[in-house]
Amino acid sequence: MIDVAINPLRTWNQHCLDGDELATLSAQLRANDLPHCDIETSAGTFFDFRTERNEIAGYAGIEIFGPDGLLRSVLVLPAWRSEGVGGAIVEAMVEFPCEQGVQRLHLLTMRSADFFAARGFGPLPRAEAPARIAATSEFASLCPSSAVFMRRDLRAAPALRAMT
Ligand SMILES: CC(C)(COP(=O)(O)OP(=O)(O)OC[C@H]1O[C@@H](n2cnc3c(N)ncnc32)[C@H](O)[C@@H]1OP(=O)(O)O)[C@@H](O)C(=O)NCCC(=O)NCCS
If you average pLDDT over residues 94-123, what whole number do you get? Predict the structure, then answer.
């Protein structure tokens, strides 16, 4: 019980979503005012993150285009916020593309630029987005032009992780 309170995802289950689970994710993203319209048709891979009690604490997804990845749909359910879950999800979502050969992880965010800046992402002009990232539906149509575009160089990931 104490371990769960200190680190709720200490022994988590990262589960790849399919079928009706993607519809549930879409509804959760919509309820939290995040891009959701293309979830069920996206070529991306989406996960939920469950506690050792099998409760869903959060979600995240990634679209991969060779050396470039787009991190999206990072959502911690309100009951689990401010307990380190979001940070743990980001680090898990860095491990996955690293294993796929992704070198740069990108994202767009409306409200959480400081959260991602504290986790190794730096802001960039949208014009610097690789063509495949700029062509994604999240980039091209779902996120307002005022969203902050950010990138983390995953080739620096081991050193960054060693510091944290
Ligand atoms: C942003 C979010 C994922 C953070 O998850 P979390 O589990 O609460 O974050 P953690 O507990 O790992 O980290 C908490 C730290 O991040 C900071 N933080 C949390 N949300 C933040 C936000 N929106 N903007 C800036 N900082 C934020 C907290 O102040 C805290 O800082 P501290 O460690 O210096 O005290 C979560 O608030 C969320 O799901 N928000 C709604 C959806 C969203 O905006 N997702 C991002 C889409 S791109």
Answer: 94
Residue 128 has φ and ψ, to the nearest 5°, of -90, 5
CA distances from 160 to 18, 38, 118 (A): 32, 32, 11
- State how far the Cα of 93 lies from the Cα of 62, in Å rounded to an integer: 8
Alpha carbon nearest to ligand 1 atom 35, residue? 82
Say yes or no to pLDDT of 122 above 70: yes
- CA 38 centroid distance within chain: 15
Q: How far is the CA of 91 from the centre of ligand 1 (A)?
A: 13
3-state class of 29 per DSSP? helix
Query: How many whole angstroms from 112 Cα to the centroid of ligand 1?
Result: 7
Q: Could you tell me the residue ranges of all domains in the chain?
A: 2-163
- CATH architecture of the region 2-163: 3-Layer(aba) Sandwich (3.40)
CA–CA separation, 67 vs 103, rounded Å?
A: 5
Scored b (16 or more CB within 10 A) or e, 92-108 reads bbbebbbeeebeebbbb
